[in-house]
Every structure is written in C-alpha cells, then in structure tokens.
C-alpha cells in the first residue's frame, strides 16, 4: 500500500467551474506576466459549466487524468489555484503558513497523474513548494531548473540604435543575409506559411539544444502541426540567408491582450559569435512590440551568453520561474 500522501485534515481541492470565474481571474491577473501561460489557456478554454446538480468534483473524487483548473477554498475565498495538464502550472499559493499544506495537496494531484504530466513550471514561489513534496516520491526527473530569471522589456526601451547600426561583416564562406526592406534593421520579418519547411528544422534544433529532447521524434505530427500553426499565424520572427536557411528566430509563445512571452530565441550555429544576436533580437522585439508592447521571457540562470544578450538589449529582471521536466 502506498504511504498516505497527506492527512485527512488537509485542505480540500476542487475542480473549478464557471461559478469560480471571478475568483480565479483575481488570482490570474494579480501577476499577468508571471501567469501568462495559464491566462492564455483561460482565454481559449475558459472554465467548464457547473454540473446540473451543482455538485463539485473534490479531493480524491477528481479523476486521476483530470485536466483543467483546480483550486483550494478556505472560508469562501479561493486561496490557491493550479492548471493541471501535460504542462502543469501553479498559479497561486498563499504566502503564509498555509502554503505548505496547499502545496502538498497539489503535489498529490500531480503524483496521481504523474504518467501523463511532462512538466511542472511557473513562478518559483509556487513551483518549488510543490516540488519539495514531490521530489522524494518520484523517479529522478529529466531536468530540474530551479532558477530561471523572468525578464521584462519595458515598452519605453529604445532599441533603434541596436538594430539600425551596420551589421558586422560576415566571413566570406557564409551566405549573405536576405534583405527585408522597411523592416527594423532591414533583415527581420514575420513568417508566412511558405516558411514552414525552413523554420521546422530551426525550431527542432533550438528545442533540442534547450530541452535535450528531439521534438520531431518525440512528438511527431503534434510538434509539426504546432510549428506549422505558429508559422502560418506569423508568430515567428526570422532572419534568413540568401539560400533561404533560417539564421535567427524568435517566437511569440503565449499572449494576452497587450502582453506576450517570447520563446525559442535561436541563432544558427554558423552565425554565432559574430555580434549578430543583439541586433537580431532588438529588431525582432521591435516587430513584436507593434502588437504586444509588454514583452517577457524567462531564461536559465546558467546560460551566461543568453543573460548577457538580454541585458544588452534592455531586459529587466522582474521575477523568477522554475521548471521541472518530469519525463524525457
């Protein structure tokens, strides 16, 4: 028999439905940039309707494979919330002595669903208390990244001098960059569907470098369709060379109203170390800011090169994420 995970006096977790919309939104929007992943999910899927009887799914009555928002109420107030899914994201935990017991309840839900949850990520102050309960009960995770600075690019940051300066001269053996008249810097552009075949290998290479997983082999058509959708919607900003190969890319990962999170920043290995990353990123951000003036991203604290790049392009530290990749 499995050791009892939490006591009978533990707080009760409930599946949230439309009756909880106002309470959930209060937690979500208390930290828009930190909760952007969960907010976008809420924008797209919302909450399910209440059951005809009004009864709620609670505690161990929640199916092991339940997917959606769950929360913990005390005295009629929603104090904690979690988005359960293949990527599980804690939204809020109380910052008092109730944090430990709430984190333990959420850890139990994740443990029950461990075979179908690939990662746990989000603001460190929520992720790490949950992980503290999980880590002794799970097999060794694939990757634990406890410190990931959450960065913000203020809308007033002037990037013009970075992307308008002449680019360094390329070595003669490298193909020249394609010109994009009237774009920032004259070389960045948003993708169109015809870019898919060129963007896919760049996206897969970046994913493998960052996560350590070969995404096409692991996720197959799901990954290809995800990339195709982003490309067709113009959610990638790219620089290409005269042969059509992607030299640089940055992705509009998630968004809500006027805020977006940048993901997948990547420079082709042949073009690294040439002083191109800062002007490319600055130009890409200028394009993104036409739609989303409030940009954020998060980065591993051990990635000194990336941290230096973001510092040079005006990003400011506003918080911290943590990511636990549970399965390979």
UniProtKB/TrEMBL annotation:
Question: Which terms are listed as keywords in the entry?
Answer: Acyltransferase, Transferase
**What residue intervals traverse the membrane?**
none
Could you confirm whether the keyword Cell membrane appears in this record?
no
Spell out the molecular function terms from Gene Ontology: acyltransferase activity, transferring groups other than amino-acyl groups
Where do the N-acetyltransferase domain residues begin and end? 191-328
For this protein, the record's CDD domains field holds: NAT_SF (cd04301)
Residue ranges of coiled coil: none
Enumerate the PANTHER family for this protein: N-ACETYLTRANSFERASE (PTHR43072), UPF0039 PROTEIN C11D3.02C (PTHR43072:SF23)
Identify this protein by name: Acetyltransferase, GNAT family
What species is this protein from? Rothia dentocariosa (strain ATCC 17931 / CDC X599 / XDIA)
């Amino acid at each position: 028999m499995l050791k009892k995970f939490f006591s009978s006096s533990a707080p009760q977790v409930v599946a949230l439905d439309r009756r909880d919309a106002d309470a959930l939104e209060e937690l979500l929007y208390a930290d828009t940039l930190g909760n952007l992943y969960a907010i976008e999910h809420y924008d797209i899927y919302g909450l399910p309707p209440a059951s005809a009887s009004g009864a709620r799914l609670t505690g161990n009555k929640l199916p092991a494979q339940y997917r959606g928002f769950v929360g913990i109420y005390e005295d009629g107030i929603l104090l904690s919330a979690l988005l359960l899914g293949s990527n599980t994201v804690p939204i809020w935990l109380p910052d008092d002595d109730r944090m430990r017991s709430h984190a333990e309840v959420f850890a139990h839900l994740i443990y029950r669903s461990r075979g179908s949850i690939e990662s746990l990520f989000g603001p460190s102050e929520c992720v790490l208390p949950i992980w503290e309960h999980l880590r002794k009960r799970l097999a060794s995770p694939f990757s634990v990244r406890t410190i990931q600075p959450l960065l913000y690019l203020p809308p007033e940051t002037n990037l013009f001098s970075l992307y308008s300066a002449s680019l360094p001269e390329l070595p003669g053996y490298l193909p020249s960059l394609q010109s994009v008249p009237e774009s920032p810097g004259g070389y960045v552009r948003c993708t169109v569907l015809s870019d898919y075949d060129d963007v896919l290998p760049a996206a897969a290479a970046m994913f493998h470098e960052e996560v350590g997983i070969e995404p096409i082999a692991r996720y197959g058509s799901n990954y290809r369709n995800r990339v195709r959708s982003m490309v067709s919607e113009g959610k990638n900003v790219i620089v290409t060379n005269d042969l059509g190969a992607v030299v640089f890319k940055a992705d509009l990962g998630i968004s809500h109203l006027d805020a977006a999170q940048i993901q997948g920043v990547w420079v082709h290995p042949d073009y690294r170390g040439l002083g191109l990353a800062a002007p490319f990123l600055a130009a890409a951000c200028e394009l993104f800011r036409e739609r989303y003036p409030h940009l954020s991203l998060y980065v591993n604290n051990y990635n000194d090169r990336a941290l230096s790049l973001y510092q040079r392009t005006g990003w400011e530290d506003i918080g911290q994420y943590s990511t636990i990749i549970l399965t390979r």
